[in-house]
Amino acid sequence: MPTISVVIPAYNAERTILETVASVLQQTFSDFELIVIDDGSKDRTVELLQSIKDERLKVFSYENGGLPVARNRGISRSAGEFITFVDADDLWTRNKLELQLAALQQHPEAGVAYSWTSCIDEQGELLFQYAPTFYEGNVYAQLLIGDFIYSGSNTMIRKQAIESAGEFDPTLKSCEDWDYWLRLAVRWPFVVVRKHQILYRRSSGAMSSKIDVMKEAALIAIDKAYKAAPPELQSLKNQTLTSFYKYCAELYLRYSTNLDGISKAGHNLWLASRANPKVVVDRNFLSLFKWLIKRWILIGLSPNH
To answer: Which Gene3D superfamilies match (predicted)?
Structure first.
């Protein structure tokens, strides 16, 4: 039996799947199985996977069920003592599995290991790195305020922890990973690998509409999280909303190419200040506001507008 099961949910991933699979097969720790769940792809995803000759790779095809369902199908196929996921367009540094496994072995009480995240563009070039976080042990309150894990391609989870938390919520169209990390954090300590090991790919196509979908799902996930949270943590909700609306504003500012997107950024900054009026003197909020003004002027003055 392999020590680790790596699960890749893949839907029409022909542009990136080979690079993602290569970043797993080239890991310094090699005792793993690689399970690709083909989620009803209509392109050459499966054909490309068939060109890979590595006995650790297993491909299972299903009708399209969506990302959470594909992850759940991967879990049901997993034989490893530890399970980790990577989306079909993301990458890992070569020592990701080795260091996360070592962290969990050194902390037998912990159920989840996570690393720091970098963002890359469609060509694989580095865009920016998320600021390091050092939360360990009981991280439930910090995770409730904001998803410092950042993507579904990050965590390594003990099989017992997954069995205790259940499956990913198939009704969520986005933020199903944050919802899942919260359910794990209620039950298990977390441990951090203090290195940027996750390369999270941001694609520019129709980004504004993707942010709209993510925002709608996240608000459902936030509502669900606080219904489950104990009374002593209910006071954190405004902090969660403030943090989330600032994050939405940053995404709109980073990816919008028209005034409609910039207007949405401004609206989200307003929502952040309404949830917590004190945020307006926060340095990060002020820098977002200045960025908003600059983007508004640049797009407003552009000849294509």
So the answer is: Spore Coat Polysaccharide Biosynthesis Protein SpsA, Chain A
Residue 38, H or E segment: strand 32-39
Query: What pLDDT is attached to residue 208?
Result: 66
Residue 84 has pLDDT above 70, yes or no: yes
CATH code for the part of the protein at 4-201: 3.90.550.10
Bridge partners, 198 (sequence order) = 92, 117
Q: Is 31 helix (H, G, I), strand (E, B) or coil?
A: coil
Sign of the alpha-carbon torsion through 298, 300, 302, 305? positive
DSSP string, 130-197: PPP----BS-HHHHHH--TT-STTS-EEEHHHHHHH----TT-SS-HHHHHHHHHHHHS-EEEEEEEE
Helix (H) or strand (E) holding 226: helix 207-228
Does 184 have pLDDT greater than 80? yes
How far apart CA 112 and CA 158 sit, in angstroms, is 7
pTM of the model: 0.91
Instruction: Find where tokens 């938390």 sit.
Output: 165
Structure tokens at 198: 């996750």
What are the Cα distances from residue 64, in Å, to 61, 161, 173?
A: 9, 27, 13
Arithmetic mean of pLDDT over the chain: 94
Q: Which helix (H) or strand (E) holds 121?
A: none
